[in-house]
Amino acid sequence: MRALLPAVLAALWAAPANPPAASYEDLAVDLLQRYLQIDTTVPPGNELKGALFFKDVLEREGIRVEVDEFAPGRANLLATLPGSGRARPLILMNHIDVVPADAARWKVPPFSGLRQDGLVWGRGAEDMKTEAILQLVTLVRARREGLKLDRDLLFLATADEEAGFAGALRALSPEGFRDRLAKAEFLITEGGENIVDESGRPAFFGVATGEKGPFWLKLQTTGTPGHGSRPIADSALNRLVRALDRVREHRTALKVLPAVAKFFRDQAPRAAGARAGWYRDLDAAVADPATARALYDDREVSALLRNTISITVVNAGYKTNVIPGTASAELDVRLLPGEDPQAFLAELRKVIDDPTVEIVPPSDFRQPNASPTDTALFRAVERVLGRHFPGVPVTTTLLAGATESVLFRPLGIAAYGFTPLLTTSEEISTAHGDDERVQEATVRRSTGVFYDVVREIAAMTPGPYFHIGGDEVKTLAPAQYKAFVERVQEIVQSHGKQMIGWDEIAAATLLPTSIVQHWRPDAAHGELARAPHLILSPANRTYLDMKYDQNTALGLSWAGLIPIKTAYDWDPATLVQGAAPAAILGVEAPLWSETIATMRDAEFLALPRLAAIAELGWSPAQPRDWESFRVRLGAQSPRWVALGINFYRAPEVPWK
Ligand SMILES: [Zn+2]
């Protein structure tokens, strides 16, 4: 088979009538306002109120919902939109709780959900109630539009993310939803960040693929107390100061993780001077001592390349003339994904080199982790964003702190922080700050973008048909190929879809639902006439990538040259001898893309032949007539010119 998929241009089947996308945008803004009015501040949380809000919306749509109130007023919610089971589930996860808001410092009441001047205000607008609404509306829309899902779509809303992850831990426990969540392949939650410049355009879309692990340590030591007038060389405080100075001087190793390397590569085109080169090949940059020093000393860059240590708290003494008997300090340590905390402790012990200074690790440390970027979900995000925001790169970011994703990755789930929402750097700083708000325009636009991502990954073959190709399998003996097709059509049918295949499948014993797509001018008509259904795409009549004449620069000619009259002047009803008229579904014109680089190329090969094939496919043999058609076709040119279409001015057509 010629390697590329056809861009199918002649419509055979009308798309189902969908409600206009604008109504989902209105729905998103309306639900966001109402959700922001629910106070889910933690502590105490009261996430049950948020869960019941979701439950009401989802159950009205006929979507199955479970609410797990695991402590009074504290609840998780799981909603399930079942798929065919062909692929493992996708989890859309959001946390219901928000951090406290000091109303006295806000311009508007923090739980007003006020909509004004293109902004929607409220605690949670950035972190992360708006993302929750995008997820919610996606579920509603998938349900209303009857999206044929290849995988279950799970909507998981959790409690307590801003405090201790109690909700996510409960959800992953056997008493929660573990059996349903653990089977998932992908998860989308918070952590994505897309900051726009003054022009309103993001420099890049940041998808968080990993996060550093906060590994907060305490140093403590004791010693002999005494009077300040007679110094004690190895007092607790002196030893602590010496230990802290060694920690301060210590340079942790630079390590380039794949996601971080990609992030810098994507920044290289915008970097100035020598940095552009460093960012393009960070491994090489780090290997050079002088460059490594410069990268180390850049605090923004440095934090992405190593385990960091900040000395943040020191406690000792109470009176100037008293040498204290105890001293302690706290270190904010952040470990890179994949780091072993025990190895880091051993490194730090060696650095401090004083057994009397005790290092106390945190009681509930979680190993930091990351997800690969070579996944179907990451590629779906890239494709969809590429369509909606052409030219804006999609890159990987490493978060400085943990999200609930850290709990899901060890189960083999690829978890990403992803959102299509755009923010200014001022708006993003209102998360956990005052006057938290989101732009209504980005909520509206993101509603469709987020839905498209989910559709792309959860409904990979959303239509009722599944095309298996056909002429790739030249190496199989005919009997083997026949058995293969008969087996495959059973599988396709078991997923509720109709199989389509090229001429070659006609040799098999086909199910009444299977469809043969005729392309070879030399195909055996006896076999084709037995096909339950036929799509007609004869290569010498309908392949839009064939040249018009010898002088056409684009296109190929292996099936012949196809001027407009050749494309128009044939009868689909009599092309295949012996085929029952009822078996013929219609005409499809493939445009194979070997010689096509731009939309203008595609337009040139498709028009005007596509118009000829459309008339042929949609109107009866009488009164189809070439002479009348070429005149009517010529009358189309002012419209095509007005639309800026690059069509071929065929000499046999009297163009207006
Ligand atoms: Zn959050």
Shape: elongated
Going by CATH, the architecture of the largest domain would be 3-Layer(aba) Sandwich
Rg over C-alpha atoms, rounded to the nearest angstrom: 32 Å
Under CATH, the homologous superfamily of the largest domain reads Zn peptidases
Q: Tally the helices: what do you get?
A: 24
Tell me the structural class.
alpha/beta
Proportion in helices: 25-40%
Bound molecules: zinc ion
Largest sheet, spatial ordering of strands: 2-3-7-4-8-18
List low-pLDDT spans: 1-19
CATH C-level of the largest domain: Alpha Beta
Q: How confident overall, as mean pLDDT?
A: 92
As for the CATH topology of the largest domain, it is Aminopeptidase
Biggest sheet features: 6 strands, mixed
Number of strands: 25
Termini distance? 40 Å
How would you describe this protein?
With 656 residues, this protein is an alpha/beta fold. It folds into three domains: 25-210 and 369-458, Zn peptidases (Aminopeptidase, 3-Layer(aba) Sandwich); 213-360, Alpha-Beta Plaits; 465-642, Alpha-Beta Barrel (TIM Barrel), CATH 3.20.20.80. The chain contains 24 helices and 25 strands. The structure holds zinc ion. Zinc ion binds at residues 95, 127-128, 161, 190.
